[in-house]
User: Which sequence fits this backbone?
């Protein structure tokens, strides 16, 4: 066990244990403490003497950072950073890291699983069998994947991974992304189209974008109206990307065939929420990121990133590298 030189506080985490983090902390000479904070004041109290914090959902705002002057690094359990004020951290010289690629295979696997279950009518068929019916009509019409278009909104690591897997199954894959020019192709050969075109052409529309001002309610009533009424929507990115009320309306009135949702605006979703009462929806509890492999990698790398900063080394993942001027690389 290394001599303790720094203190890291896990300000919130819903994982079953912190054993992986504790083992790495012992190797790196880090004292590790944990809390379950929900508010700014709780974070301030829990991390009062911390050199770094690890965070899952708790708010890390400018006010929090002002009250925690000793904090030099923030590690986010996951990809999204919408609860962290990165600009405020940068202004105060605090390094912010995430783990952008730990769940690439897992989230894309989950997106495909939802898409395939919906495309083959597995919900209707399973429920029919359980009710004593062998009627195939509720699932019809079904189509072979080779005649269908798999559309992707967000051609980052996860979106392209989902596209590669869909292409292997025979889908024609198209996608849109603000960083890519319509009319070109990705390195995988996927056609890059406009947002309007991906809505209009997709039989499966899979969402893989971060949540921000430009993507909040990106899939709203107008976007849903532009989609095929036979299409299915899959969301494994952020709940706020989809206007839930508009989605419920489209699914209820026949404007959209079905939806597979791992994330919702309201999380956890109440059992009596309208979306939970629809038979043409598959809901999963924000688990797309999870596999035994991704779970271990996420925990190890989240702490490893901040431990490297505290040791004067450049971490594997850093969102504001300008604060690392002068560190060993």
Assistant:
């Amino acid at each position: 066990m290394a001599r303790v030189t720094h203190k890291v506080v896990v300000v919130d985490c819903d994982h079953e244990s912190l054993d992986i983090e504790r083992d790495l902390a012992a190797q790196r000479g880090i004292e590790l403490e944990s809390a379950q904070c929900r508010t700014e004041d709780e974070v301030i109290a829990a991390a009062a003497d911390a050199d770094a914090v690890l965070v899952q959902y708790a708010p890390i705002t400018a006010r929090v950072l002002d009250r925690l002057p000793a904090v030099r690094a923030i590690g986010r359990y996951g990809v999204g950073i919408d609860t962290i004020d990165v600009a405020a951290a940068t202004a105060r010289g605090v390094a912010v890291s995430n783990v952008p690629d730990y769940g690439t295979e897992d989230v894309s696997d989950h997106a495909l699983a939802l898409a395939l279950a919906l495309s083959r009518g597995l919900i209707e068929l399973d429920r029919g069998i359980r009710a004593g019916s062998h009627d195939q009509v509720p699932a019809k019409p079904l189509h072979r994947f080779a005649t269908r278009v798999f559309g992707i909104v967000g051609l980052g690591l996860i979106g392209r991974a989902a596209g590669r897997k869909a292409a292997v199954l025979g889908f024609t894959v198209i996608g849109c992304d603000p960083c890519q020019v319509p009319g070109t192709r990705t390195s995988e050969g996927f056609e890059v189209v406009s947002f309007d075109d991906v809505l209009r052409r997709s039989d499966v529309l899979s969402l893989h974008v971060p949540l921000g001002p430009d993507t909040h309610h990106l899939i709203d009533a107008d976007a849903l109206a532009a989609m095929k009424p036979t299409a299915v929507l899959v969301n494994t990115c952020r709940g706020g990307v989809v206007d839930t009320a508009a989605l419920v309306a489209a699914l209820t009135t026949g404007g959209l065939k079905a939806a597979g949702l791992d994330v919702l605006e309201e999380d956890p979703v109440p059992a009596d929420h309208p979306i939970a009462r629809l038979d043409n929806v598959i809901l999963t509890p924000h688990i797309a990121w999870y596999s035994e492999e991704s779970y271990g990698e996420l925990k190890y790398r989240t702490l490893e990133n901040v431990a490297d900063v505290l040791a004067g080394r450049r971490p594997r993942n850093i969102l504001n590298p300008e604060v690392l001027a002068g560190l060993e690389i």
User: Anything to note?
Assistant: The chain has a mean pLDDT of 95. The CA atoms of residues 180 and 313 lie 33 Å apart. The chain has eleven helices and twelve strands. Residues 292-310 form the longest helix (19 residues).
